[in-house]
Amino acid sequence: MTATRPQPRPGVLAIDAYVPGRSSAPGIDKVFKLSSNETPLGPSPKAIAAYNAIGRHLEDYPDGSASDLRDAIGRVFGLDPARIVCGAGSDDLLNLLARAYLADGDEAIHTTHGFLVYPIATLGTGATPVVAPEKDFTASVDEILKRVTPKTRMVFLANPNNPTGTYIPFDEVKRLHNGLPPHVLFVLDAAYAEYVRRNDYEAGLELVATSENVVMTRTFSKIHGLAALRLGWMYGPAHVVDAVNRIRGPFNVNGAAIAAGIAAIEDAAHQERSREHNTEWLEWIFEEIGKLGLKVTPSVANFVLIHFPQDKGRTAAGANAFLMKRGLILRQVTAYKLPNALRMSVGTEEANLLVMKALAEFLGKTK
Ligand SMILES: *Cc1c(COP(=O)(O)O)cnc(C)c1O
Predict the structure, then answer these.
(1) What is the largest CA-CA distance in the chain?
(2) What is the pLDDT of residues 25-70, one digit of tens each?
(3) Ligand 1: which residue has its CA nearest to atom 11?
(4) Considering only CA atoms, which residue is closest to atom 2 of ligand 1?
(5) CATH classification number, 12-42+269-362, choose in 3.40.50.2300, 3.40.640.10, 3.90.1150.10, 3.30.70.100
(6) Are 140 and 132 a contacting pair, CB within 8 Å?
(7) CA 39 to chain centre
């Protein structure tokens, strides 16, 4: 049968489009956006200066291979720049990896509350997303390995994961890798690696360096505070880097992102300030929410997942509306199969205090 109008490829219409965190509240002038895990400290002043300088030469194409940025990343992490690819956010790289390695009928595994970009990228290629259950809101290596079939081509794992904030130790990451057939590409998304303070955690640099089927993705959107510029990078085996370089847009990273990214990655002091702020407030928020009698999943990232009871008047949806009226924007995570939870990014001192006060009021525990 001939279609009467153009039809997208199989899988595309099965995608639920990604809904970003809200940035405004109806009728409220001053809002605190704690819905997208952005840094409350903003970018390095050096990155802002580098960004501004680019404004004088907007007529020039950027360097299509982002060489200076890859060199800078390579220096900071001790990596071969030839094995780095930059992208317009790590979203760009996750989609490019899916496009390069998945086709109709293939399968790609992610976990129940895994980052939503994974199923979106998978479906867009005509492949099937396969969901591995989590335990205590944490990825389970056994459950992932159980779902490997002859059709499996990729495994996506955010470590730590968004929106749960949980991680698996590096031993477990290695056990997962050891259990995968060599033709399955293991994508380790380490968007929040900089925030993790655990001795048993590693982002995966060493694993990539010593394997032919592991890629690590990183972002400038979180600790570096450059979400608006859309910038991420991946580190992978030479043959994967080659494949991605063939299909990426020739100028997929813009000039402002390259300039600001170099300044940001080199500003270790600014990153340390952001990390310190996060460590301090993450702990405080975790304790305060516990005192309110709400469950909160232990997080190693820059956000927490808060669980609400289902009784009337105290639900996550009710809390969200209550906070929204006060200009406090958290993230509803129903699309992540967490209808009874809200995700709160660690904010400024002012924002964190306001949320705790408002939550206490919402629960009738005014202090
Ligand atoms: C925020 C986030 C990213 C970063 O996405 P960008 O496209 O680089 O802004 C990647 N992975 C996870 C799990 C995230 O939460």
Answers:
(1) 67
(2) 888 899 999 999 999 999 999 999 999 999 999 999 999 999 999 9
(3) 191
(4) 191
(5) 3.90.1150.10
(6) yes
(7) 13
